[in-house]
Amino acid sequence: MTATIISGKELAREKREQMKIEVEQLKSQGIVPGLAVILVGEDPASQSYVKSKQKSCYEVGIHSELDEVSVSITEDELLHKIDVLNKADHIHGILVQLPLPSHISEKAVIEAINPSKDVDGFHPINVGRMMTGQEAFLPCTPYGIVEMIKSKGIELEGQQVVVVGRSNIVGKPVGQLLLNENATVTYCHSRTKNMKQITRTADILVVAVGKAHFINKEYIKEGAVVIDVGVNRNEEGKLVGDVVFDEAKEVASYITPVPGGVGPMTITMLLYNTIVSAKRLVSKG
Ligand code: GUN
Fold this sequence. Notes:
- The protein has 285 residues and is an alpha/beta fold.
- It is built from 10 helices and 11 strands.
- The model has no long low-confidence stretch (mean pLDDT 97).
- The chain has helices at residues 8-28, 44-60, 75-87, 106-112, 124-131, 140-151, 171-180, 195-199, 245-248, 262-284; strands spanning 4-5, 34-40, 63-69, 93-96, 160-164, 184-188, 204-207, 225-228, 232-233, 239-240, 254-255.
- Helix 7 links the parallel strand 5 and strand 6 (184-188).
- It folds into 2 domains: 30-115, Rossmann fold (3-Layer(aba) Sandwich), CATH 3.40.50.10860; 140-262, NAD(P)-binding Rossmann-like Domain (Rossmann fold, 3-Layer(aba) Sandwich).
- Strands 1-11-8-7-5-6 form a 6-stranded parallel β-sheet.
- Residues 95-98, 120, 140-141, 169 line the site of guanine.
């Protein structure tokens, strides 16, 4: 079997074309969706993510502001910046790029963001709403993954899903979103015993461990759908996923590539959440 590629790049392009039209319509009503991004320090990976977010906002017509602050900013100073953005009428989404330096509490920062501007979907209010199936900002990577699976008409109800990884940003919430779609969800993580036996039961295998080539074909059931969330650099500096793509594509029915898979969809759902937020905040007046 040679797997069909689920191209996040292609789906992202289609969705962004639709969003461009929607933003045009909002602008004709005097509404310009606005996203504020705060980047603390000079981590090259974070700088690169933030630059992509800015560029994507520009392409779709979303107003974006980037505040690049020194790694030595205090927690209080950062919380003050968030407070100003919470009150700014032209800002509908606030994103503080993670990770933060160790002297700043990520919990305090996330909780300081007004949940109605939390387009990352990281605030406990949004996490709780998502868990209980209420309307919420959904975290962008998990949301993008669900959209990619649905775009191929792949059934989720009753399917065995195995998620490898349990981070708050990807692993835990993607399992929850797939549970909300009536899948049967199992989590594997660093303490899991006999991981191969478990992953081989998966109709849909989501891998988010952040380790290059962690999953080879022996972990994958024939015909499974494989979603690779990993973005790692190999020795040659090339981007590779958590899955050995060349092996996995011979076993899987569908697979996401790296790059061009989940990555472009993460930013797309951030843009989507920002537009939704603008519409909601404006309709509330
Ligand atoms: N760092 C890595 N991924 C993300 C993300 O989706 N949002 C934020 N704020 N920081 C991140």
